[in-house]
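Hello Y.,

Per our agreement to keep a running log of every chain we model this quarter, I'm adding this entry. I've kept the format consistent with earlier entries: sequence first, then predicted structure.
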Amino acid sequence: MKLTHNYFALFAVFILLSELLRAADGTPDTLSEQPESITSEFQYINETAFNLSGGEKTGAANINFFSCAIGANLEKLAGLKEAKFYTRVIYKNGGMPNELFGTLQGVSNLESANIFALQDCWIEKEFGDNTAVLFGIHDLNTEFDVKSSAVLFTQPSHAIGSEFAMNGMNGPSIYPYSSLALRFRYDPVKNLRIKFAAFDGVPNIERKFTEIKLSKDEGALLAAEIVVRTADTGFSGIGGWYFSGKTTTVNAGTPPADNELQTGSSGIYCYYDNPELLQINQMKLGGYARFGVANALFSKLHYYFGCGSILQNVFSEGDIAGISFAAAKLNPEYSAIEALQRYESSIELSYKREIFRWFQAQPSVLYVINPAGGQNIPNAFGVNIRLIAVF
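Predicted structure for the entry above:
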């Protein structure tokens, strides 16, 4: 209990700091009215997931998630030309919905161990109109494998492919554990962007507020992505990743705890994303599709496919409805060890609507086929209710 109180105290100090910075800059309370020199945002999400049938067991799990972010234009504040600063603190407390559903890929992109952490803290410097360098604590999934049409959906694999997210000794540098990074961005011609980054290979394994621990044994995560604008709102991307440090292998007939550590964990992915593919009266129809493959020697999942379709302005301006599908093929080596089915797949229906300017509600329906490969776990059906406040 004392630790929880300390978390809230630190979080309150961070929020107070953001308010003092805004006051010093003469920043209005409304984020949309803020000048460019200082921006801040506070977000609270309450989510309750109900597993109504199947899975590991029926029941409900509740999550409380807080985040507070501060951004600064360093050219206006300190005279550092074409430079900006960004930091974000997160706090998660509550249950674990996947303990009910029993999936490999997860059912909520907010689920994690209870944590209070520095998710981002970086400086970015631009060089002309086409080059930028970023250094600091950085969430990989804010720049790599990003599909704007997938933001609606609550399953984590729609944010970042599960074949990528489930690799490495503690995953890549994503929520809830991010790491030190150096990222380069280059736009050689119009409508083409190239990104490359090196991240600490084992992010925050001690689950501290933040952790920077670079070592040859842990190595680095190298990520690269090429993005092409194919329409006004449409993008195609292809990317790849490689862990230079040693990670656990998956070998049939060998208990996972006894597997050797080797180098070579890697994968590639591609996607297409267009949130406004077609206009239908006041409504906008969009969607995305993504496919990724991981090195079968290291990954429980051999490949992953995800897609989704969204419809904006369905009943009122700003609301959004969508349907998504995700399928992961289990590594034959892993499924042979555990005598599992070859696939885990899921369907999600979701709808988000603004109730007040600062408050949104989002109910979702989820059906999972062969949770964790289906070994004595029946298909799961559940509902997720998410309430979102942003200031």
